[in-house]
């Protein structure tokens, strides 16, 4: 992200982001100003009424042609009624406009931030906590909404009243206006000083709440592990530490922000008292009218007392700016993996894949793959086996462009996948992973996730192929049964079969099976294998497996070690080579123990 963006004030960045709402902002601002204008009118009405009672036919109002005292009071009453109606009308208008503006910006920010998150590369999420990202998407954006609901209008109205009342004072009594204005520089200086002191404290508050949310999200996801290791007391202590840090951070901010109003009240006290004494003397000596004196006393309260709310407004403002900076920094995070421009209709995909001299390393690590080449022919089943950490799953991430290769290129049907539209590339690939993720929803919704418009009949057909229908119909509500968050109500084998059904329903031209039967029993594995033999016909299939029995019928099997291909061939050819594959096969079949001894009967 350009440094100039991060260096700009959060309010500037927010105003730039909400440019489509500028007309709404101006409407809300105008309504706030008009409401304050009519709100400041009653003190003038009171001053005129006092003038009528004291001066009678010589009052200010009498100079406009209404000399009868009762008629003057009647005019003031009607004027007061109109003013109050207009004040109420514009209060309704600004309140509705500001709150709708807050809701609209909140809605857009959350969607845009989440949409931007989805476009970021996988490495971004691996370096950050889920709870921290949730704090930005939820808590920080809500904090901004609270400021737009209340704080923006407060700032505009305080500014409006200050300008109007100051102008009125200097017009009516220029000789004593400075007394009313005396506290204002002190208040403004105090506000700026408090703002500078509060800004880092609220930035720390946002950071602490992010860490707290991360702890909560992490613990809720791992509640089974916590219970199985009986670490509840340990976790509550860790949570206590995070919550205490958040509480202390807030206390530091509160200690400063709470001091603002009492200090401002002292400044207001001196200004009001000085005006009361000096203005009263001016009236006694005949240099100031009683009505004008009454108006000034009312106006100075309208000017100075609202300034005491600056503390709360400033508090909202600083919290909102700390949150805005975090949200905008997220939106300004550059996208590392960009979509290509070449469309790839599913009907035209043959599925011929080539990895040509690719090199890849995870950030901060040594190369997982170095000058790696592999050809996966269209319509064939290619299996890849090897020990943990050999780079098998990394190949899947690179094919899906979850990561970008450092050197070399990967082609699909002769086209570099970096030139293909990301949505088309990933739409052409169906992934069944060993790490199955099911969404909180029904079984049917999870199977139809890649094809949400699929009919129930199509969902059931896919489930039958995946050997999932038998257990699904025995669930309490069948296909409408809620699986729970991450599918926690189902066994590992059941989740894996639903994941397989999801890929089958998607019907992609390329199918990747990453340990697709690792969580099922032998009987279910045999049944699924028969189904896989059918669905992999004339479809490019990449099967990654530890259990060699699941890939023995593959057209070609590759053995990977330390990011390199060390063997290739069919199942029978690899057994004849008496190499790594043959050794793994004998161990898994029980012909040789893991220590190398001949098993009984072997």
TrEMBL record:
The alphabetical list of record keywords is: ATP-binding, Membrane, Nucleotide-binding, Transmembrane, Transmembrane helix, Transport
The cellular component terms of Gene Ontology attached to this UniProt record, alphabetical and capped at eight, are:
plasma membrane
Q: How does it sit in the membrane?
A: Multi-pass membrane protein
Residues forming the ABC transmembrane type-1 domain are 26-319
Q: Name one Pfam family in it.
A: ABC_membrane
GO MF terms held by the record: ABC-type oligopeptide transporter activity; ATP binding; ATP hydrolysis activity
Q: Enumerate the spans annotated as ABC transporter domain.
A: 353-587
Q: This chain belongs to which protein, by name? A: ABC transporter
Q: Which organism is it from?
A: Hydrococcus rivularis NIES-593
């Amino acid at each position: 992200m350009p440094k100039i963006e991060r260096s700009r004030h959060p309010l500037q960045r927010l105003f730039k982001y909400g440019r489509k709402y500028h007309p709404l902002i101006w409407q809300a601002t105008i309504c706030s100003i008009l409401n304050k204008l009519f709100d400041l009118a009653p003190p003038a009405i009171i001053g005129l009424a006092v003038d009528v009672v004291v001066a009678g036919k010589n009052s200010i109002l009498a100079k406009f042609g209404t000399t009868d005292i009762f008629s003057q009071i009647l005019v003031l009453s009607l004027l007061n009624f109109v003013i109050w109606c207009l004040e109420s009308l514009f209060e309704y208008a600004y309140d509705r406009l500001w709150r709708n503006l807050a809701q609209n910006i909140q809605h857009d920010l959350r969607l845009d931030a989440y949409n931007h998150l989805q476009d970021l590369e996988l490495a971004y999420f691996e370096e950050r906590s889920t709870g921290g990202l949730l704090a930005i998407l939820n808590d920080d954006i809500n904090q901004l909404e609270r400021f737009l609901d209340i704080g923006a209008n407060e700032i505009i109205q305080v500014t409006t009243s200050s300008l109007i009342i100051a102008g009125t004072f200097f017009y009516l009594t220029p000789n004593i206006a400075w007394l009313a204005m005396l506290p204002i520089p002190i208040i403004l200086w105090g506000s700026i000083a408090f703002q500078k002191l509060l800004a880092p404290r609220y930035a720390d508050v946002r950071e602490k709440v992010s860490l707290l949310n991360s702890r909560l999200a992490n613990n809720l996801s791992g509640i089974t592990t916590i219970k199985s290791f009986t670490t509840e007391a340990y976790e509550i202590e860790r949570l206590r530490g995070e919550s205490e840090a958040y509480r202390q951070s807030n206390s530091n901010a509160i200690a400063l922000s709470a001091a603002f109003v009492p200090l401002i009240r002292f400044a207001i006290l001196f200004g009001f008292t000085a005006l009361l004494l000096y203005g009263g003397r001016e009236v006694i000596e005949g240099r100031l009218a009683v009505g004008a004196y009454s108006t000034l006393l009312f106006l100075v309260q309208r000017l100075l007392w609202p300034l005491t709310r600056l503390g709360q407004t400033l508090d909202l403002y600083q919290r909102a700016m700390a949150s805005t900076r975090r949200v905008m920094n997220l939106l300004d995070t550059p996208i590392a993996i960009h979509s290509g421009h070449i469309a790839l209709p599913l009907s035209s995909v043959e599925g011929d894949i080539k990895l040509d001299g690719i090199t890849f390393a995870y950030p901060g690590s040594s190369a997982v793959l170095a000058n790696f080449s592999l050809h996966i022919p269209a319509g064939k089943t290619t299996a890849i086996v090897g020990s943990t950490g050999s780079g098998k799953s990394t190949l899947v991430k690179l094919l899906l462009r979850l990561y970008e290769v450092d050197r070399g290129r990967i082609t699909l049907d002769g086209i570099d996948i970096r030139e293909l539209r990301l949505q088309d590339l990933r739409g052409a690939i169906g992934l069944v992973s060993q790490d199955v993720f099911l969404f909180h929803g029904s079984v049917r919704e999870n199977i139809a996730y890649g094809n949400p418009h699929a009919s129930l009949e199509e969902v059931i057909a896919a489930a039958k192929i995946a050997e999932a229908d038998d257990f699904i119909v025995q669930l309490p509500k069948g296909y409408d049964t809620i699986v729970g968050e991450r599918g926690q109500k189902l066994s590992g084998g059941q989740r894996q079969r639903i994941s397989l059904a999801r890929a089958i329903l998607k019907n992609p031209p390329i199918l990747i099976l990453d340990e697709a039967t690792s969580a099922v029993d032998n009987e279910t594995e045999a049944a699924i294998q028969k189904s896989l033999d059918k669905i992999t016909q004339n479809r490019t299939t990449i099967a990654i497996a530890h259990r060699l029995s699941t890939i023995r019928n593959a057209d070609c099997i590759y053995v990977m070690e330390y990011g390199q291909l060390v063997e290739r061939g069919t199942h029978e050819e690899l057994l004849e080579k008496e190499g790594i594959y043959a050794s793994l096969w004998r161990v898994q079949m029980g012909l040789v123990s893991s220590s190398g001894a001949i098993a009984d009967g072997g």
